[in-house]
C-alpha cells in the first residue's frame, strides 16, 4: 500500500536571498512594499552598476509573481558581479517557477560552483530534480543541505516525503521525527504528524 504525499515546495520565501539588503528587511516588516521598489530603483538610478540593488529589486518582483522582471534584474546583477552565488541561485528560483527546470538546474549548479556551501542552492537544486522525477538526485541534494544546516526542518521533511514515496517507511519515520524535534511551524508540524500516523497505519497492515 502506498499513499501519496505532497512535497512542500518553498521557493521565494526560502530561497530568494538578498546580499546586504538590510533596508529590505525593515521595509518588509512595515509592509511598505511600494517603497521597497522605489528604494531599489533610486539606488539603481544613482548607480546603474549597483548589483545589490538589482538583486533586491529582483527579489521584490519575484515575491510578487513578476517573474520576467525578476529574471531581468537578477541577470543584471550577475552581469555586474558574476562572482556572487546568490544571484545565480535567485535566477534559478525564478526559472524554476517559470517551469524552465533545465535552466534552473544550470543556475543552481553555477551557484554551487562558486560556493560549494551555498545551502539554499542545494535545497533549490533538490526541488528541480524532484520536479523532473529524479528523486535520487533530489535526495542527494537535500542530504547535503541537511548536513550543512541540520537545524532546518525543511530538509528533513522533504527527505521524509521522498523516503515515503520510495516505501522506505523506517527512514521516512526517522526524518519526520527529526522534523518534530526541530519545532517546525504549525502547518509542517500538522503534516508531519499526519505522515507519522500514516506510517503507523502501514505498520499495522504489514
Automatic annotation (TrEMBL):
Coiled-coil intervals: none
Organism domain of life: Bacteria
Assigned keywords, A-Z: Repeat, Signal, TPR repeat
TPR repeats: 51-84, 85-118, 119-152, 153-186
Record InterPro entries: TPR-like_helical_dom_sf, TPR_rpt, Ycf3/AcsC/BcsC/TPR_MFPF
A Pfam family this chain is assigned to: TPR_11
Protein name: Tetratricopeptide repeat protein
Species, as recorded: Candidatus Auribacter fodinae
